[in-house]
Amino acid sequence: MSYCVRENLPLLERIGCLKEERKAVILAHNYQLPEVQDIADFVGDSLDLSIKAAETDAEIIVFCGVHFMAETAAILSPDKKVLLAAEHAGCPMANMISGHQMKEFKAEHPEATAMCYVNTSASVKAECDWCCTSANALQIAEHVENDEILFVPDKYLGSYIASKSNKHFTIWNGYCPTHVRIRPEDIVQRKKEHPKAAVIVHPECVSEVVALADEVLSTGGMVKFARESDYKEIIIGTEVGLIHRLEQENPKKHFYAATELAICPNMKLTNLEKILWSLEDLQYEIHVPEDIARRAKKAIDRMISVRT
Ligand code: 13P
Ligand code: SF4
């Protein structure tokens, strides 16, 4: 039995002890619960997390996020054990398209380059030429040597980048159930309450919300904006979990959720106990079939090679 388990240490110390014993690193997304963010070795957006997963020399990655994120880490680090702390943490938007549907979509548009948001399964990525995150979607679209682009699965991110680009986009009809909860009326109301505040929103928000924003940013972009801008008050149009990090990093600034309803239930499935169990029992290991991983990795590697 492990030394850390035998010693009956308090929860946080046990996690720290096991992490060292297992040579593990804990990666957490910006939407995770505050206590999870606080014990993670690294907290970031999807792009940061993919890069970290590719670069770490830890033997085990404990992922605090949703399934597609851990899958991406497993694809990028085939020699490491990648564990998803919360077994059932999925992304409903990623589940809006299957590998089979992606194949059919491509067959209907053989002339187009297939680009997928990182919020997709490995089987969808395996069918695509390029992967992107919300931090680099426009940059990747511009980089692609084709004016015809198929974009999956998020119709709002897709139409946002299409509006900024001269290329022609054919977009899948997916969406994030959490971000569509942010309504234009919420932004108008918050702006009335805090007229001096900047409005920053995630590109997964509906187009009417995006139209009211001062900046449209990934969660990592929001962290940077909050740190660097002179605004003392900022209205945040994304999942509410990000506000913990923003407040911790900028104690003199004020952050207001566009709506408290923007909660991703899947992101909240991870807690400290599950992280401990993950380290104790090496669960839940993410396996991606070799052929799918090899093809999906091409799309992800291409994305990572185009650094912002
Ligand atoms: P970011 O890459 O901006 O962190 O977004 C991930 C996500 O799932 C947004 O809902
Ligand atoms: Fe998926 Fe939306 Fe949750 Fe992000 S916030 S993980 S896109 S359901």
Distance linking N and C termini: 45 Å
Biggest sheet strand order reads 2-1-3-4
Task: Using the 3D structure, state the CATH architecture of the largest domain.
Answer: 3-Layer(aba) Sandwich
User: What is the H/E order?
Assistant: HHEHEHEHEHEHEHEHEHEHEHEHEHH
Helical amount = 40-55%
The CATH topology label of the largest domain is Rossmann fold
Structural class determined from secondary elements: alpha/beta
CATH class of the largest domain: Alpha Beta
Tell me how many strands there are.
12
CATH homologous superfamily name of the largest domain?
NadA-like
Count of all domains: 3
Write out key terms for the chains shown.
Rossmann fold; 308 residues; binds 1,3-dihydroxyacetonephosphate; binds iron/sulfur cluster; 3 domains; four-stranded parallel β-sheet; 43% helix; alpha/beta; 16% strand; 15 helices
